[in-house]
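Q: What would this chain look like folded?
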Amino acid sequence: AAPITVNSFTAGSIEFVQDEDYFQIIVDTPMILTAETLHSTSIYAYISLLDELGNGIASGRGKDTGGGSTLSVYVEPGTYYINIFMSSTQTGVYSLQVNSISTVDDYGDDTGSAGDIAVGGNATGMLIGGDVDYFQVDVTQTGALIISMQPSDAGNHRVYGLLYDSSGNVL
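A: My prediction, written as structure tokens:
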């Protein structure tokens, strides 16, 4: 496997049918690792992230119209491999872009360090691994309080929330 680094851009090619490319990446700190292939729309590429033993961790594939494949996954420090391959009858060139997203916690993990949000306001956050985020809202009127949460990407995510009173009891 060819070594690459986080926050890099690498060119590659699938030279014959059923060819696969492997890249080794060493992660020094916990992060969200993103990898994306960039190629022509006539190619249908797949991308996978493997652990040091070759076990699959995450995968992505191009859209039916081609144009690129992406994956984004939280990783701990260690050695990983990125595998690029194309549909069973295709060959072609591509570029691989690998980046990291910081894992600095954006909102507190308990009621004592909750982020503030106003009635009618909104907040954007990131949940990483087993992360939880707490928000505090001061409600000054009697009535219905509507809270909605929506993942910002198209992945198959479920976001749950609980409403607590000022004493920490679930309502």
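The radius of gyration is 21 Å.
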